[in-house]
Every structure is written in structure tokens, then in C-alpha cells.
Amino acid sequence: MTQEATIGALDAPHDPDTLDEQKATARFLEVVGEVIGIDEVPVDQHFLDIGGDSLSMAIIVDWIGQEFGVEPEIDWFFESQDMSDLVSRWWNKLLSR
Q: What secondary structure does DSSP assign to the chain, as a single string?
């Protein structure tokens, strides 16, 4: 899917009160996979180990921010132990807004 097609498919930011953690996590990982170009994102590996780089980070931050209204922090892509930790940090930020 191209960037234009994906962004065009995004809805307005989701309401965290009606958001399901499992669905939001799956969507986050789907975006990561789309940007990096892999079908399934392993949650037990670090972002850089699955092929992520600074450009893909910027795109992911933008897409997630557009779709959910809350961006993951760039530092988390480096600091998180694995993708599960990264998504968990973002989910907690989403809930706290």
C-alpha cells in the first residue's frame, strides 16, 4: 500500500475511551509493517533489528499521529527493548491524554 493510499484511508483521530488496546496495537504494528515493508512485525525484536531506520521512524510517527491523535516519541524507537515495549509506551501515552 502506498503512503497516499494509507493516509487517505485513515479516519479522524480515535477516541481513547472507545479504543480497544488489542486493535490499536495491531494497527500500530500494521503501520510499522507497511512502512518497513514486512508482512508481520515481530513484537519480540527491536525496531532497528526488523529493518527500521530514521526515515521509517518519522513516517510511522506521522501516520500514527494522524490516525490516533497521539504520536509515539522518537526516543522510544531507540530506548524500547522490543516492539511490544514501544507499542506499550505509546498506548499508555494515548490513554493519558
A: --HHHHHHH--SPPPTTT--HHHHHHHHHHHHHHHHT-SS--TTS-GGGGT--HHHHHHHHHHHHHHHS-PPPHHHHHHSSSHHHHHHHHHHHHHH-
Average pLDDT over residues 79-94: 97
Alpha carbon distances (Å) from 67 to 49, 50, 56, 94: 25, 23, 16, 12
- Which of 5-9, 11-15, 66-70 is least confident? 5-9
- 36-68 as b/e: b if 16+ CB within 10 A: beeeebeeeebbeebebeeebbebbbebbeebb
pLDDT at 1 over 90: no
33-62 tens-digit pLDDT: 999 999 999 999 999 999 999 999 999 999
